[in-house]
From TrEMBL:
In the C-terminal section; belongs to the PPC synthetase family. GO terms for cellular component: phosphopantothenoylcysteine decarboxylase complex. Keywords: Decarboxylase, Flavoprotein, FMN, Ligase, Lyase, Magnesium, Metal-binding, Multifunctional enzyme. Transmembrane segments: none annotated. This is Coenzyme A biosynthesis bifunctional protein CoaBC. The gene is coaBC. The lineage of its organism: Bacteria, Pseudomonadati, Pseudomonadota, Alphaproteobacteria, Rhodospirillales. CTP binds at residues 102, 112, 129-132, 149, 163, 167. GO terms for biological process: coenzyme A biosynthetic process; pantothenate catabolic process. The chain holds residues 185 to 411 of 411 of the full protein.
Amino acid sequence: AATGAQAKPLAGRSAIVTSGPTHEPIDPVRYIANRSSGRQGHAIAEALAQAGAAVTLVSGPTRLADPAGVETVHVETAQQMLDACLTALPADIAVCAAAVADWRVSGKADQKLKKDSGSLPSLALTENPDILATLSKTGSTRPALVVGFAAETEAVLEHAMAKRKRKGCDWILANDVSEGTGTFGGDRNRIHFIDENGHQDWPDSTKVEVATTLTEKIAAHFAGTTT
Ligand code: CTP
Ligand code: CA
């Protein structure tokens, strides 16, 4: 347990954390969303702040209260989330825990879509910007440590390791979000931690425990030690 001088190991460091889902509008009253609760990202923001970091939490719509001691920026769409993250740079640490919608509706309707228009609507989609990949490739303003998650339903380690390389981040916390695991929207998480050296399997934990373990790892990283 942290004591004395070690209690604020991240004092003087700054962090950006993304959390929650994004909402991608279809028309003025409808949107595309996902089941993310924001619990994991919010817990990480709070744990980093408790360790002394200056934290900007960029959150999509959730039912959670803003964490204590954290500057929270509320956004709805992936594009807004990216803009808020870029505005929050520079930072020493970025943790992307948001379940960003992979696609948005291209050419969202300015008026509510109506049933009596004569035909069924079809939604054309376009890919959203990848916030984790963008932050990993910001050149001179790249945070020293960029951490992402990988939500997978099969071949979890394999997919997550490939994701780490593709996105250019330093660490990936992979989790199995298959139906029945209860991870997505739930309280618990089983993490496979992946860095350039390989992977560690963390025990089944609450999301608050995962936040604490990650924060300890980040503090050790900046202290030049390993865990
Ligand atoms: N991520 C992001 N911006 C996106 C999509 C994902 O920042 N537009 C981040 C997530 O916050 C997470 C990581 O990238 O930290 C991996 O997200 P995931 O959905 O698992 O990966 P994708 O690259 O979107 O691939 P896929 O959903 O097809 O598995
Ligand atoms: Ca995705």
